[in-house]
Design a protein that fits this description.
The protein has 139 residues and is α+β, with helices and mostly antiparallel strands. Helix content is 27%, strand content 42%. The chain has two helices and five strands, in the order αβαββββ. Keywords: Disulfide bond, Protease inhibitor, Signal, Thiol protease inhibitor.
């Protein structure tokens, strides 16, 4: 009888310890990501392009820096991104490749945003959606 009770307590303790040690790796949990990972960069570019499509700004914005990134496996992948983006010299009325646009450096005209974006990608359905946006003008 003593052996059975001890074994079951040891099992519970070891199970809790493994949850504590490996808890960050559980499916559905957020994982910090390297901002330079290609999938993270693509999600950030998608978010900035979606921001440009939704905004009423006269000029488009361009990704400057991915400050931080985390992903969560859901029915697809959710990317939570903190990014800096800058106002470009490209007017929204014209068609262009954003990579050819320069970020405005003149302090009188320049504007930089620090934004939180949440992007959900469902690769097997070829879908990407911007599900959350929160931007603040940086001083």
């Amino acid at each position: 009888m003593m052996t059975t009770g001890w074994c079951s307590r040891a099992f519970v303790v070891l199970s809790l310890l493994s949850l504590y040690v490996y808890g960050q790796k559980l499916v559905g949990g957020f994982q910090n990501r390297n901002p330079t990972d290609e999938d993270v960069v693509q999600a950030a570019k998608f978010a900035v392009n979606a921001f440009n499509s939704l905004s009423n700004e006269e000029y488009d914005y361009k990704l400057m820096k991915i400050v931080s990134a985390a992903t969560q496996v859901i029915a697809g992948v959710r990317y939570d991104l903190n990014v800096e983006m800058g106002k470009t010299n490209c007017n929204r009325e014209f068609t262009y490749d954003i990579s050819s646009c320069d970020i405005i450096q003149d302090p009188k005209l320049a504007r930089t945003y620090l934004c939180f974006f949440s992007v959900v990608e469902v690769p097997w359905e070829n879908q990407e959606s911007l599900v959350a946006v929160n931007c603040k003008v940086q001083q």
